[in-house]
Amino acid sequence: MPNTIIIGAQWGDEGKGKVIDVMSKDADIIVRFQGGANAGHTVKVENEVYILHLLPSGIIHEKKLCVIGNGVVVDPLSLVKEITDIEKKGIRVKDRLLVSNRCHVVFPFHRLLDEIRETRKTEGTSIGTTKRGIGPTYADKSARVGLRIADLVSKDFPEMFSALCRYVNKILIGLGAEPLDEAKILEEYQQAGEFIRPYVGDSVTFLNKAVREGKSILFEGAQGTMLDIDFGSYPYVTSSNATAGGAITGTGVPFKYIDTVVGVLKAYTTRVGEGPFPTELKDEIGALIGREGREFGATTGRPRRCGWFDAVIARYSAMINGVDYWALTKLDVLDSLKTIRICVAYNYNGQYYDTIPASINVFAKCQPVYEEMPGWMTSTRNIKSFDELPQQAKNYINRIAELTATKVGLISLGPDRNETFKIG
């Protein structure tokens, strides 16, 4: 298998977990490269459902090596729980997981700051974060005051943590919050540090050595392109680079070693949290898509906002990620619809956009320009090849490929790993 980056091409929740799980069988190493425990990948294998937040989805394949790359921010308490919980389900993690010693550490005060900043924003400006402390951790990383996993497992951690606490307490007191219980946090994090110590190492050297030895690597993205800190619907975004470029900075593997970029798309569009959503449906069709697609966040349980497929977003994602082909998921959710719409452009006060406006005020007021296609009005579940699909479903897939100038190479028609087939 070539070295492959898998990214979400919309606002996240496209079904990356399943696609990564399916493609992991042909890779030697699966590496997560950005985000934190605010992401949730759901993988269904037979009758067992796994919801992963920090562990790469490839961990479900028992012989695969998994890496949490340097671009990920790690809550050690969450990681300990996730390792413990998945081992209870019979998945062996020992000797199969490497956690980068360069990952930045999420502390309880990061979660507290996240909540304070979110709840104190004026009405209409809330971003809708998961309050997992991800943004404040990346902020500390950029401000060069954060601590990394290498610090957590070192003998100097108590001293370094104490200095950080003094800095953070000044901020908390200034915000009217209670100061930290330094001793309690230190004890919890030292225990967590001891638990994860066997997994910690130099992931950058490990991955580059693996590439030189001819090993195949699958780079696992979290969230989606429209949540990217640079290219997404800013400020309603995450705090890391969820695009293909994030795989490079988040692992230390040079781009010259990347062979393929796979973009994951839903056959419609969803998003969680606040922010613009031009094709959002607040009617019975939107409700139907939500029910049929079981559209609830894997991390928060929040219902996702649902809408028609947005070809403007998909085209933009293909461009900035260099997508080689699409993995199209949840086509079956549209099985009962008589007519299906595709957004092909935006209209803002008579001006047409075929890409994403940089101004959030403009983007928020964009109206979708639709074209309509007939639905197929029959079940596509249990179909195993493109040729077996109803003609109207084939037309819909082909139109997505045409509008985005990117071929569709993988189709998913259900949550199980076996409900997937390749095209071509």
Write a structural description.
Helix content is 32%, strand content 20%. It contains 13 helices and 20 strands. A hairpin with a 2-residue loop joins strand 16 and strand 17.
Topology:
Elements: E1 4-8, H1 16-24, E2 29-32, E3 41-45, E4 48-52, E5 65-68, E6 73-74, H2 76-88, E7 97-100, E8 104-105, H3 108-119, H4 134-143, H5 149-152, H6 157-174, H7 182-196, E9 200-201, H8 203-212, E10 217-220, H9 245-249, E11 260-266, E12 269-271, H10 284-292, E13 305-307, E14 309-310, H11 311-321, E15 325-329, E16 339-348, E17 351-353, H12 360-365, E18 367-374, H13 391-404, E19 408-412, E20 420-422
Parallel strand pairs: 1-10, 1-11, 2-5, 2-10, 5-7, 6-8, 7-9, 11-15, 14-16, 15-19
Antiparallel strand pairs: 3-4, 12-13, 16-17, 16-18, 19-20
Helix pairs in contact: 2-7, 3-4
Task: Give a short overview.
By secondary structure, the protein is an alpha/beta fold.
List keywords for this structure.
Adenylosuccinate Synthetase, Chain A, domain 3; 424 residues; 10-stranded mixed sheet; single chain; Adenylosuccinate Synthetase, subunit A, domain 2; 4-stranded mixed sheet; 3 domains; alpha/beta
- Distance between the ends: 16 Å
**Largest sheet descriptor:** 10 strands, mixed
For the record, the count of structural domains works out to 3
**CATH hierarchy: architecture of the largest domain:** 3-Layer(aba) Sandwich
The CATH topology of the largest domain is given as Adenylosuccinate Synthetase, Chain A, domain 1
Q: Helix/strand-derived class?
A: alpha/beta
Helix content bin: 25-40%
What is the CATH first-level class name of the largest domain?
Answer: Alpha Beta
The CATH homologous superfamily of the largest domain corresponds to: Adenylosuccinate Synthetase, subunit A, domain 1
Overall pLDDT level? 93
